[in-house]
TrEMBL record:
The lineage of its organism: Bacteria, Pseudomonadati, Thermodesulfobacteriota, Desulfobacteria, Desulfobacterales. It comes from the Bacteria. Signal peptide: none annotated. Belongs to the small heat shock protein (HSP20) family. InterPro entries: A-crystallin/Hsp20_dom (IPR002068), HSP20-like_chaperone (IPR008978), Small_HSP (IPR031107). This is Molecular chaperone Hsp20. SUPFAM superfamilies: HSP20-like chaperones. Pfam families: HSP20. Residues 43-153 form the SHSP domain. It comes from Desulfosarcina ovata subsp. sediminis. The gene is hsp20_2.
Amino acid sequence: MFARRLFNYPSVGWDHPFAELNRMSRQMDRLANTLRARPGMPWMAAKVFPAVNLTEDKDKYYVRAELPGIKADALDIQVQNRKLTITGKRTIESEGENVRYHRREREAGKFSRIISLPGDIDANRVDAKMVDGMLTVAIGKLESSKPRQITVN
């Protein structure tokens, strides 16, 4: 009787006041998982490619990007202001015309990734090398952006 007056619920089968919200939340989660798993909806499963690490030392910034199966001559690397742009195209050999896929996770096509650098760079001191699918770009820092040691008199 008390529950009926307080929460406007029938006294038989009384439930927690937030049970309906919990049920709706579970339904929304199921709907999101269903949409995420559907093929043909690339915006739901977008991944960032290539994966990169950005590090620095006293003189340079280092960008390391994983680019398996991509040849160095298929890449366009540019620096401007505080940004490094890596552009390229990944191609995958055709499996054949009458092939039925059971799982298809490797994507092909053009890609472009812009990496913002934390400081000013010297565009004349940029080196790039590709070894076993790992691209390493070393970008020199401007002298004015390097830390200076100051002695106290």
